Amino acid sequence: MPPVAPAPAHRTAETVVTVLGTDGRPLVDADVTVAQRRHDLAFGCTGFDFVALANGEAGGGPDSTFGGAPAEQAADLAELWLDLFDTATLPFYWRGFEPEPGRPDTARLRAAARWFDERGVRVKGHPLMWHTLAPRWLLDRPTDEVERLQRARITREVGDLAGLVDTWDAINEVVIMPVFTAEENAISRLAWEKGRLHVIRLAFETARAANPRATLLLNDFDMSTAYECLVEAVLEAGIQVDGLGLQSHMHQGWWGEEKTHRVLERFSRFGLPLHFTETTLVSGELMPREIVDLNDYRVASWPSTPEGEARQAEELARHCTLLAEHPAVRSMTYWGLADEGAWLGAPAGLVRADGTPKPAYHAMRDLVRGAWWYAPTTLRTDGSGRVVVSGWRGDYEVRAGDQVAPFVVGGAAATARLSGELVRAGSVGLG
What is the pTM of this model? Predict the structure, then answer.
């Protein structure tokens, strides 16, 4: 792994924390322990593997509605997941979420979101509108009814999950949406007949009406100028977008520093936060470069190899470092913890099919919970009950004996009042 660069100045802060006792008075000349709980920069992964676990079900696995690892691996995977990531993406693919009209899987997804929230994890929903995996029962509906049902679906999901899921991919892969031909679907028809801007406005304005506090992303895999032109048109049309989602499924090899820098500069010019929503790097043989649509590459077996795992670890560390160095990046999400059940059957996970972590898992953890983490540190308050904490921006806690209090390292002074139990990290958007 390459040497770790110094922490970027925009990611760190110094905060003066006044520690108050349970009586509300400054805790003077006392030893306290300060520890980080969560980064401000979101380090995420899909949470598909844990929907069944959160619901106390024996099911799950690659053949379940949402994919993921086998149920027998879920508990061990959850321990690995929570030891690295702080932001989960949950699946709201309409076809699987509502296989029959009027029977959405709301209760199970709410339970999964609550499971993460109780563990201090931010939760994002993916996606509210997408042509792929649109319900087949929409096919025979007229376009105006498809639009009405799509609006109702967005209103329902965003409203029902508000407070637990406050960040959403409002609409996914709109560049290709109206001309998508791999599978007949009603959403592509809607986009073709009414245009990209119409469906984008539909998604964003409907979601925002359902939850004005939500952080709503425009998400795409197309890093060409077509996406840039679409973003320009969206902003010129006055549609409020909270962030740009940039997919980076690198099954054909890491983008490298030059392309990554180029993508960052091209999309940061819009002045919107950048969310790297879907990142993958394979630990086996690379997909041939001549493949245009990654979905077209199907092989009987795609094993992880020692050489591939070493390459994946080095490249993931370099990729994470590049993203952390750029001030526009708000989040980075790895698309799938485990190889088992991975998209296209690729060895793109950070954990092998047998449940053991790959070098890439350790490489990322060495950054996120190592070099970029404020380990528990004993400090002594001064005569006014203050300590100075310097570290990566994010959520922290201070402890004195069995008393604990949260605070934020973000530059501004903070006050932390000790109590018997720690208030969990809030479910906040990633804007």
Answer: 0.94
Q: Which residues contact 256 (CB under 8 A, 6 or more apart)?
A: none
**Phi, psi dihedrals of residue 25, rounded to the nearest 5°:** -95, 150
336 with 69: CB under 8 angstroms? Answer: no
d(CA 11, CA 189): 43
What pLDDT does 424 receive? 54
Summarised one tens digit per residue, pLDDT across range 297-311 is 999 999 999 999 999
Point out which residues pair with 19 in neighbouring strands.
Answer: 416
Q: Distance between CA atoms of 47 and 39, rounded to whole angstroms?
A: 18
Contact 214, 160 (CB under 8 A): no
Rg (alpha carbons) of the chain, rounded to whole number: 22
% of the chain at pLDDT higher than 90? 88
Is the pLDDT confidence value at 188 over 80?
Answer: yes
Domains of the chain: residue spans and CATH: 9-38+375-417 (2.60.40.1120), 41-371 (3.20.20.80)
What span, in angstroms and rounded, lies between the C-alpha atoms of 141 and 139?
Answer: 6
Edge-to-edge strand list for the sheet holding 386-392:
386-392, 12-20, 414-417
